[in-house]
Amino acid sequence: MDEGTLVQRARELDDEAWQIIFNQHYPRLYRYLYYQVGDAQTAEDLCAEVFERAVKNIRRFHPHDGGLGGWLTRIARNLAYDYHRRRKARPPDPLELQESWIHDRDDPARDLLTQEALAYLSQALQRLTPDQREVILLRFVAQMRTPEVARLMGKNLGAVKTLQRRALAALRRELTNLGYHD
After folding, report:
1. What is the pLDDT of residues 82-125, one digit of tens each?
2. Structural domain tally of the chain?
3. Together in a domain, 14 and 83
4. The whole model's pTM is what?
5. FRET partner for 146 with CA separation of 20 to 30 A, picked from 22, 28, 71, 131?
């Protein structure tokens, strides 16, 4: 089902359409929120609130604003900012990564290497600037396309591409400084 049809059915409060939207976007939104708040239960609660707000505001959705995924991610991003503002806190330090998101359960040696890599990655992400960390989370965790990230971050496309390139270079540099060698 194409996105236009899906949105139209969602506006009519079609349960099947909302189930499809949830199944398509929940894992990505949960990962993004988890990285932002550092707590599984809080990420689940915020994710539920994303969908609650989406149901209430689906009539305001405009496809030309970056698609349904971008719209849901903007809601998630705003909720994460509100969460930190209420708590007067920064994102958690250090950022705990969930191995289960990329685990290969059939290969114990690979599991060990993955755990080691995630520990290094967690430390390296914390050494980046907030904008660098945000662009990496939006592009590679929330799996947003560059134009969507640009809209969400309020930057032009070229600035986001430059920021992403610099963020990846800084991440690579920090991983090297930490002694990680792939």
Report:
1. 998 888 755 544 444 444 444 445 555 455 456 677 778 778 88
2. 2
3. yes
4. 0.71
5. 22
